[in-house]
Amino acid sequence: MKLSRKIAVSVALGVVLSLVVSIGGFAVTCDNIRREVLRLHVIAASDCEADQQLKLKVRDGVLAAGAEIFDGSVNVSNAVRKLTPELEKIEHTAENIVKENGFDYDVKVTLSREFFATRTYENVTLPAGKYLAVRVVIDEGQGKNWWCVMFPTLCLPAAVVKTEIDDVLNEKEAKLVSRNPKFEPRFKIVEIIEKYFTS
């Protein structure tokens, strides 16, 4: 093998190795972020206009009825203990809103880990993967969904205990979620890997 070819192969191997190390470190940081974030997920019955409007009414009703629950004090570590006794109340509220609006859909509310694609909320991008979430499913849940972050309280204006992303994540993690995913191809790579392992 000629010297120039050996150099080219060595450079290529070095690039591949550094890419693997970079993605590995990025994936670990993403996993740490997922362990600190609690999400709220409302899924419509279908994509028709009426079902999408109903989804938003259910969202508003659930947030209003659960103002004390979604006050920013529920975090990932205490979510099961604090939210499990409240799930029935949330479900009952959602069912009443559905009936008041003339629909006979069932509603199911659960607290579970579920897969989310890479999502951006205002100036924060959350990496793809499984997050703990309060999940409100209307009927068969075949429609577009609405989501927000319960902890830290990024999209709950009524929250009493305000938590910023920097209060929950370390400097490296906070910097990662503040990046624009259009300029961060590793978000897509992590999403592909997460989808593969959760499918």
- Report strand order across the widest sheet: 2-5-1-6
- List segments where confidence is low: pLDDT < 50 over at least 5 consecutive residues: 14-22
Give the count of structural domains. Answer: 1
Helices and strands, in N-to-C order? HEHHHEEEEEHHH
* Helicity level: 40-55%
Mean of residue pLDDT values: 79
Strand content: 15-25%
SSE class:
alpha+beta
> What's the Cα radius of gyration?
21 Å
Number of strands: 6
Number of helices: 7
Give the termini distance in whole angstroms: 44 Å
**Morphology call:** globular
Largest sheet: 4 strands, mixed
Task: Pick out its properties.
199 residues; alpha+beta; four-stranded mixed β-sheet; 7 helices
What would you note in describing this structure?
With 199 residues, this protein is of the alpha+beta class. The protein has one domain. Helix content is 47%, strand content 20%. The protein has 7 helices and 6 strands, in the order αβαααβββββααα. It has helices at 3-34, 49-65, 79-83, 87-100, 165-168, 171-177, 185-198, and strands at residues 38-43, 107-116, 119-121, 124-126, 129-138, 145-151. A 4-stranded mixed beta sheet has the order 2-5-1-6. A two-stranded antiparallel sheet has the order 3-4. Strand 3 and strand 4 form a beta hairpin. The relative contact order is 0.19. Residues 14-22 have low confidence and may be disordered.
